[in-house]
Amino acid sequence: MALVAASAAVAYSPPARRWYLTYGATADEITGTLPGDELLPHPDLRSTRAITIAAPPSSVWPWLVQMGSGRGGAYTYDWIENLFGLNMHSADEILPEFQDLAAGDLLPLGPNGPAMRVEICDLDRTLAFRSTVGDWVWIFHLSGHRLGTRLVSRNRIAVTHPGPALRLVNRVVMEPGSLIMERRMLLGIKERAERGAPVAGRQAA
After folding, report:
1. HSE-up of 191 (CA within 13 Å, CB side)?
2. How far is CA 43 from CA 37, 50, 158, 182, in A?
3. Conformational region of residue 157, where left means phi above 0, alpha means psi within -120 to 50, and beta covers everything else
4. Which CATH number does 2-194 carry?
5. What is the CA radius of gyration of the chain?
6. What is the pLDDT along the chain (205 residues), one digit of tens a residue?
């Protein structure tokens, strides 16, 4: 019990929380404004995570637009996603049938979850989703980098009833868990986009 309490205290600490919520991102990326931030102006929770990809934005974009349940998956731990019935099967190739994404399209989150509406679909630059219940905005932003591309993933989440118990669960369980899943997703996109991409000087972020 003492070990559990100590682990929870570490997870709840400000330095640990900053790491969970800003993994891989620079100070400018963390504080900077992204297209789509205005879709949920005052979130209760915001994370900004990023990775460098040794490929141009045009090589990263196709992997982003095909993401989703029953589509190209999320490039993370499928078995965990599918415990929640999300029907995620991460593709290892670009799927032409899922490349024509457009603003207004709805992507389901499993058979029973709310859908995610495409709010911004700016080719090779910004892809932003908002849940149909309005409590979650997820933004992917691409920018040129000397090694290829910086991919920034930002989540903005509103908690309807942020009581003390829910706040504790979010900080001790959900935030660390989201880092585990999103880090694998970022690395999964990186690995796929870099395959065969003719960019010199590849190196990990």
Report:
1. 13
2. 9, 19, 5, 19
3. beta
4. 3.30.530.20
5. 17
6. 543 333 444 445 667 788 889 999 999 999 999 999 999 999 988 999 999 999 999 999 999 999 999 999 999 999 888 887 788 899 999 999 999 999 999 998 877 778 999 999 999 999 999 999 999 999 999 999 999 999 999 999 998 765 555 554 454 445 676 889 999 999 999 999 999 676 444 444 4
pTM: 0.84
* 137 within 8 A of 41, measured Cβ to Cβ: no
Q: Which helix (H) or strand (E) holds 45?
A: strand 45-53
Task: Please name the helix (run of DSSP H) or strand (run of DSSP E) that holds residue 65, with its range, or none.
Answer: helix 57-65
DSSP secondary structure of 104-154: T-EE-STTTSPPEEEEEEETTTEEEEEETTSSEEEEEEEEEETTEEEEEEE
Domain limits, the chain? 2-194
